[in-house]
């Protein structure tokens, strides 16, 4: 009798470990690319390659992890205490949230296009000598877009000499 109880306890520890590992795997599918691919921060070639590889496999792997967490959670639920059930619920919520987030382009949320640019004449512009700009000339009209502004917004819709353009950095 004691042998069967010990085996069940050992099996449950293994299932709990697997539940935790699957939840951590699912969370890492979201966190690795989010941590590595950050704007305005240096990214090494190896780290970027890892982040892109993870981002590529994350949709399928995160769903598999959620299914695994759900199956293990159902198996462990009956014999669990309230605290353990809270752990199962937390693992399921984190895994599901990660599975949703890996399908989002959350990098776009950080940058908003400038819908209507405001311009000043070249004589009224207050730029330092070292400030870089992107310039566009179409016919007689010219525009200069400060890099410092474009680095945050990344995209600007404008019309130069009656021609709609998209400026991007």
Q: Could you please describe the fold and organization of this structure?
A:
The chain has 169 residues and is α+β, with helices and mostly antiparallel strands. It folds into two domains: 2-107, no CATH class; 111-169, no CATH class. The protein contains four helices and four strands, in the order H-H-H-E-E-H-E-E. The strands form two sheets. The protein has a two-stranded antiparallel sheet with strand order 1-2. Strand 1 and strand 2 form a beta hairpin. It is elongated. The mean pLDDT is 86.
Topology readout:
Blueprint: H1 2-36, H2 45-77, H3 82-101, E1 133-138, E2 141-146, H4 147-153, E3 155-160, E4 163-168
Antiparallel strand pairs: 1-2, 3-4
Helix pairs in contact: 1-2, 1-3, 2-3
Attribute tags:
alpha+beta, two-stranded antiparallel sheet, 4 strands, elongated
Terminal Cα separation, in Å?
A: 70 Å
Secondary-structure element pattern, one letter each: HHHEEHEE
Q: Tell me which oligomeric state these chains represent.
A: single chain
| Biggest sheet layout | 2 strands, antiparallel
Strand content: 5-15%
- The residue fraction in helices comes out at 55-70%
Secondary structural class: alpha+beta
Shape: elongated
Calculate Rg over CA atoms: 26 Å
Uncertain runs: none
Strand order of the largest sheet: 1-2
Mean pLDDT over the full residue set = 86
Integer tally of domains: 2
Q: What is the number of E strands?
A: 4
Number of helices: 4
């Amino acid at each position: 009798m004691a042998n069967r109880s010990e085996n069940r306890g050992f099996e449950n520890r293994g299932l709990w470990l697997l539940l935790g590992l699957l939840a951590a795997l699912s969370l890492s599918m979201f966190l690795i690319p989010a941590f590595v691919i950050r704007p305005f921060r240096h990214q090494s070639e190896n780290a970027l390659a890892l982040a892109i590889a993870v981002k590529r496999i994350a949709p399928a792997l995160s769903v598999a992890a959620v299914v695994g967490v759900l199956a293990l959670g159902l198996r462990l639920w009956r014999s669990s205490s309230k605290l353990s059930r809270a752990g199962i619920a937390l693992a399921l919520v984190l895994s599901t949230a990660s599975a949703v987030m890996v399908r989002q382009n959350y990098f776009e949320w950080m940058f908003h296009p400038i819908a209507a640019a405001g311009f000043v004449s070249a004589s009224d512009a207050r730029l330092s000598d070292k400030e870089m700009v992107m310039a566009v000339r179409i016919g007689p009209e010219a525009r200069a877009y400060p890099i410092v502004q474009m680095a945050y917004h990344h995209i600007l819709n404008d019309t130069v000499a009656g021609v709609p353009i998209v400026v991007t950095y």
